[in-house]
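User: Sequence recovery, please. Input:
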C-alpha cells in the first residue's frame, strides 16, 4: 500500500494560521507603499468603502499569489499525470526504523570501512524532535568523508565495488559531480548534528515526484532544506533498503542532487544520473534535466535544520 506522506496531506490548522499571519504582514507591507501617494479624496473614498468591497477586489489576486507560490508552475508541462505513473514495484514502502538501519549498517561496517556506526549525543536529542512522517521517514546517511575515501567519486566507486561487485566506474557516471547546493546543505547539517559518522535526514526514494522531470521536482521541493538525493545518497540508502531497486520493473531513480557534465559542452550544460535495475545489478544512465517519463522518479532528502 502506498504511503501517504505528510507533504501530501491537507495543511494543518497551525499551518493555515501561519499562512494567514504571513500574508497579513505582506499585505500591510505592500499597502504602506501604496497609500503614500493617495490624495485626500482617494483616502476618504477608501475609508467609506462598503465592508467586503476591497476583499472582493483582492480575492482573485490573493488566490493567484497563494497558488503561484504554493504550487509553482514554471515546469508544470514536464510531468506525466494519471494512471500512467508507476508506483514502487518491489514491496518498498518507507524507511525502516532508525534502530534497524543502524544494525544493518554495522552488519556491513567492514564494507564501509568504519569501526562502528553510532549516533552522536546531538542526534539522540534530535531524533526525539524529528517527525517520522515527513517524506518516507528518517534515513541514516553515512557522510562520504567518513568512510576512508578522498572525495565524492571515490566514495561512489567504493560503494559500487564493495556492495554490488562493480569494479569499474560505469560509463554513465564518468565525470559525476555533486551540485553546489547539496554540498552546502549536507556539510552544515553534518556539523550541526555533531560531526559523527552518520547524518539524519528525511528522504523519499521517488514516489513523491513520480513522473516528473528533475527540473519540475526541484521546483516543487521545500527548498533550500529539501534537495536532490544524489547517487551516493541513493546507494547508501539501498544498502539498508535494497527492495527499492531489485527488479527491472522498478521505476528508475533520478539523482538530481548530482550532475554529469556533457563532454564538449558548455560548463553550464549537464545531465542527471538515473539509476535503475537491469539483469541482476544496478544500471546507470543519464537523462536531460527536462526529461519526464512514467518510469522516472526523482529522489530527494530533507534536512532537519534551516539552511543558513
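Assistant: Recovered sequence (308 residues):
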Amino acid at each position: 500500500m502506498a504511503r501517504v506522506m505528510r507533504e501530501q496531506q491537507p495543511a494543518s490548522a497551525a499551518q493555515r494560521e501561519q499562512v494567514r499571519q504571513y500574508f497579513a504582514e505582506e499585505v500591510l507591507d505592500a499597502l504602506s507603499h501604496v497609500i503614500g501617494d493617495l490624495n485626500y479624496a482617494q483616502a476618504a473614498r477608501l475609508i467609506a468603502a462598503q465592508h467586503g468591497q476591497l476583499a472582493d477586489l483582492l480575492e482573485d489576486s490573493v488566490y493567484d499569489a497563494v497558488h503561484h507560490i504554493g504550487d509553482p508552475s514554471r515546469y508544470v508541462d514536464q510531468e506525466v499525470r494519471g494512471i500512467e505513473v508507476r508506483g514502487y514495484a518491489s514491496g518498498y514502502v518507507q524507511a525502516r526504523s532508525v534502530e534497524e538501519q543502524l544494525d544493518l549498517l554495522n552488519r556491513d561496517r567492514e564494507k564501509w570501512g568504519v569501526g562502528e556506526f553510532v549516533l552522536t549525543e546531538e542526534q539522540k536529542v534530535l531524533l526525539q524532535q524529528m517527525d517520522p512522517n515527513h517524506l518516507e521517514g528518517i534515513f541514516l546517511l553515512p557522510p562520504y568523508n567518513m568512510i576512508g575515501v578522498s572525495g565524492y567519486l571515490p566514495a561512489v566507486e567504493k560503494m559500487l565495488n564493495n556492495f554490488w561487485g562493480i569494479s569499474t566506474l560505469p560509463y554513465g557516471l564518468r565525470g559525476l559531480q555533486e551540485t553546489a547546493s547539496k554540498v552546502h546543505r549536507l556539510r552544515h547539517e553534518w556539523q550541526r548534528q555533531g560531526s559523527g559518522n552518520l547524518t539524519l535526514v528525511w528522504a523519499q526514494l521517488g514516489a513523491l515526484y513520480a513522473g516528473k522531470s528533475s527540473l519540475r521536482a526541484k521546483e516543487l521541493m521545500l527548498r533550500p532544506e529539501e534537495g536532490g538525493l544524489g547517487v551516493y545518497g541513493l546507494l547508501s540508502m539501498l544498502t539498508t533498503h535494497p527492495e527499492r531497486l531489485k527488479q527491472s520493473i522498478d521505476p528508475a531513480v533520478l539523482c538530481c542532487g548530482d550532475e554529469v557534465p556533457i563532454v564538449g559542452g558548455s560548463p553550464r550544460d549537464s545531465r542527471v544520473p538515473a539509476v535503475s535495475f537491469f539483469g541482476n545489478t544496478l544500471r546507470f544512465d543519464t537523462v536531460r534535466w527536462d526529461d519526464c517519463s512514467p518510469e522516472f522518479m526523482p529522489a530527494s532528502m530533507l534536512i532537519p535544520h534551516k539552511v543558513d
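The CA atoms of residues 211 and 293 lie 5 Å apart.
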